[in-house]
Amino acid sequence: MLKTRIITACLLVAVFIPALFMLSNTLWAYCMLAISLLALHEWGSMIKLTALQNSLYLLIAGFAGLVIVSLITQYGFHLFFLKSLIVFFIAALFWLFVVPFWFKTKCLINSKFVMAMLGLLLITSLWLALICAKGADPWLLLVLLATIWIADTAAYFAGKNFGKHKLAPTISPGKTWEGVAGALIAVSLFGAVLYFGFGFKQLAVFPALWITTILGVAGDLFESMIKRQAMLKDSGSLLPGHGGILDRIDGIIPSLPIAILMIYLYHYFNLAA
Fold it and tell me: What is the residue range of 213's domain?
């Protein structure tokens, strides 16, 4: 299983990184839209949409996505970025205030419409963040994604070898506090490499990486909770060793949009000062 997981991850990275640096922003937006629709299809299955409902769900989302990409090319990236901040802010409110309450109560929302709209918000915010980060600087996006990849890997091995204290046993029994500690240590080392080796000469890089890591853990737990409520082990089977698309991107669904928002606000207030 571990071997399959590693092979799949290597293949994904081998495709993703060249695409990140070689594709135009427009073509990148279309590619990320396709992946987002696959994730949305898995979300629709998780919330028990019928085949017809899920097809209509994807049709509406896909059409809206094509319209958005058209508007990006027509009106320019800067305006698109500023409009996207509104979506990132709404997503941040959800992750910072709604999700902790949801974790505590573990309430089950039976309304398919509400859950469908929630999935649309979460996947759309990630899609927009992927476009904004690539448009601003592909290296920025790579650093943010690398943070989550490093955190995931470190959490897995730290939890497997040292895990004793369960993080959220009723949501995801396999996750431990030791795994979280391992993730934070690993991204701290990554931050040191960025600070001393790549010219990120701002100490803010460390709390930014820690917050991104914690948000990644929250995203992982949230998806685990939704899967548990749906009585599913994986969101899908598209990625051997990983499960579905959502199983692979759950950590970046909250972390990437909020990271983009934090970076914007940090530079905005610095310039304002």
Answer: 2-272
